[in-house]
Amino acid sequence: MIIKTINIHKKFHLGDSVVHALNDVSIEINKGEMVAVKGTSGSGKTTLMNIIGCLDRPDSGKYFLKGEDVSGLSKDKLAEIRNRHIGFVFQSFNLIPRMSSLENVELPLLYSGASDSKKRAEESLASVGLANRMAHEPNKLSGGER
Questions:
Q1: Percent of the chain beyond pLDDT 70?
Q2: 3-85, what's its fold?
Q3: Could you tell me if residue 126 is left (phi over 0), alpha (psi between -120 and 50 degrees) or otherwise beta?
Q4: Is-contact 29 1, C-beta < 8 A?
Q5: How many CB atoms lie within 10 A of CB 52?
Q6: Which of 13, 37, 55, 64 has the fewest CB atoms within 10 Å, i.e. the most exposed one?
Q7: Whole-model pTM above 0.85?
Q8: Which H/E stretch holds residue 28?
Q9: How much is the pLDDT for 108?
Q10: Would you give the DSSP letter of residue 106?
Q11: For residues 137 and 99, is the Cβ–Cβ distance under 8 A?
Q12: What's the pLDDT score for residue 91?
């Protein structure tokens, strides 16, 4: 099992109100499985993905990533796990405007210490049909290319 959550809860305080974004969520995702997280606006999809992606921690419950309980790890340790094991495509892209698409793809590889980061970034862009767009900055790419 790659991802397992057990009874995770997450709430947010908005002024005088408490929003229960996740309430007793348990899931299991095995290697090779493809999963879609669907729901209406405000149903907790982003909150769940932020916890699974080690961007946030549950208020209670357990989250196991590759068998390791990561639910209570420090922010630094979560950042290390994210860097080594998790890839995210954000809804708003989060691309650095003054960097080329190649540099944007290469940057996390550089942070992880990969010695062949440029080659891997080039291969990644080529694999999604962007070999001829590597030098372009994000504002020169279409929404689909970003």
A1: 97
A2: Rossmann fold (3.40.50)
A3: alpha
A4: yes
A5: 21
A6: 13
A7: no
A8: strand 17-29
A9: 84
A10: H
A11: yes
A12: 67
Joined together, the tokens standing for residue 44 give: 């907790």
| C-beta separation of 145 from 139 below 8 A | no
Cβ proximity of 103 and 95 under 8 Å: no
Domain boundaries, the chain: 3-85, 101-140
Q: 23 is written with which tokens?
A: 């309430």
| Residue linked to tokens 């989250």 | 63
Task: Please choose, from the candidates 66, 131, 59, the residue with its C-alpha nearest in 3D space to the C-alpha of residue 100.
Answer: 131
Tracing tokens 């793809």 back to the chain, one arrives at: 105
Pair of tokens at residue 89:
């495509």
The encoded tokens of residue 51 equal 């916890």
Residue matched to tokens 């357990």: 62
Residue 77, both tokens: 């340790």
